Amino acid sequence: MAAEELAGALAAVLGGRGPRVRGWDSAPAEAPAAAVRLRRDVCYVVLAVFLSEQDEVLLIQEAKRECRGSWYLPAGRMEPGETIVEALQREVREEAGLQCEPLTLLSVEERGPSWIRFAFLARPTGGVLKTLKEADAESLQAGWYPRTSLPTPLRAPDILPLVELAAQYGRRARHPVVLPQELPCSLVCQRLVATFTGVQAVWVLVGTVGVPHLPVTACGLTPTEQRGGIRVAVLRLLRECLALHHLAVETKGLLGLQHLGRDRSDGVCLNVLVTVAFRNPDAGDEPPKVRGENFFWWKVMEEDLQSQLLQRLRESSVIPVNR
Predict the structure, then answer these.
(1) If DSSP codes are grouped into helix, strand and coil, which group holds residue 167?
(2) Which of 73, 97, 177, 252 has a CB 3.0–4.6 Å from the CB of 130, allowing a cystine?
(3) Between the CA atoms of 278, 279, 281 and 285, what dihedral angle is there, to the nearest 10 degrees?
């Protein structure tokens, strides 16, 4: 891939898109030989935050025995064969009685690669709000409540930061609109935009196996990698080409994601922005030396692309990934 093609791939990822995943540059020794499957290997959860012009939040009242009567945001597990957006729309329809349109991904939460929750800001596009007369196994009812005075009890307080994040996004969008890209992926993996920033230049780590590309690291499903979260896969790849003991590595957040959910493609690729820096600020203005021949640092020369990268880094203009 020529520098122009690398620039095009980087621009696409910064724009919330990206090429299809056809392989990976790093994988755990225990990486599965076959594609991951929902309900067998992984669980994806979708969640929707709705905010009205009156600063009200849409909540549903739970019907499940263990949390019956408590309140929560519309949420639920994806089913095999669904795209992420289809799962979101189904859950909102079943639990709240509304049709909806996702506006942007707000955050991603993970408990290791086998459990990932995608939280969206969404808006209603039709339907009728569910009442107690329509109570069923999905929910008892749905209602709009002031953001600063939510009903109790809540099923869990973890929705409070998401509601606040949605309100902040409404006041000032910190990241561009990001919606899932429907491309197949066989494993849970991450495409890295790993950057090193100098005084007058920005470098991006590139994989060389095959054609030059933004490197991909596959996430393992072992207990060790589950405990460490998806960050483990990032560090594994970087350890294969860099001496990390004198470096500070930080995953800034998500630039986009890819998933299809059809044709037994239950994997997901998270496009993540990562920074690499020397712990000693006087160590130099050039990126750290790469070991081996499978990676190199590509100096971003295109001014617009460099400006985009610096802006995303400076303003943390990414989707947060939380544990």
Answers:
(1) helix
(2) 97
(3) 0
Give per-residue pLDDT as tens, 240-263.
999 999 999 999 999 999 999 988
pLDDT the model gives residue 32: 58
Structure tokens at 103: 């506006």
First to last CA, the chain: 35
* 146, two tokens: 């002031």
Q: How far apart are CA 74 and CA 88, in angstroms?
A: 9
**Residue in the structure block whose two tokens are 């009685």:** 97
Residue in the structure block whose two tokens are 């991006």: 204
Residues in the chain: 323
Q: What are phi and psi of 187, to 5 degrees?
A: -125, 170
Q: What does the buried/exposed string (b/e) look like for 26-53 if buried means 16 or more CB atoms within 10 Å of the residue's CB?
A: bbbeebbeeebebeebbebbbbbbbbee
209: which 2 tokens?
């196996």
Handedness of CA 166, 170, 172, 178 (dihedral sign): positive
Q: Check: CB of residue 259 under 8 Å from CB of residue 179.
A: no
Handedness of CA 160, 313, 321, 242 (dihedral sign): negative
Find where tokens 């002031």 sit.
Answer: 146
- Residue with the two structure tokens 């999905």: 138
Walk across the sheet containing 141-146 and list its strands. 71-72, 56-61, 141-146
Task: Work out the mean pLDDT of the chain and round it to a whole number.
Answer: 94
Cα–Cα distance for residue pair 249/231, rounded to 1 Å = 10
Q: How many other CB atoms are there within 10 angstroms of residue 5's CB atom?
A: 13
H or E segment and range at residue 166: helix 159-171
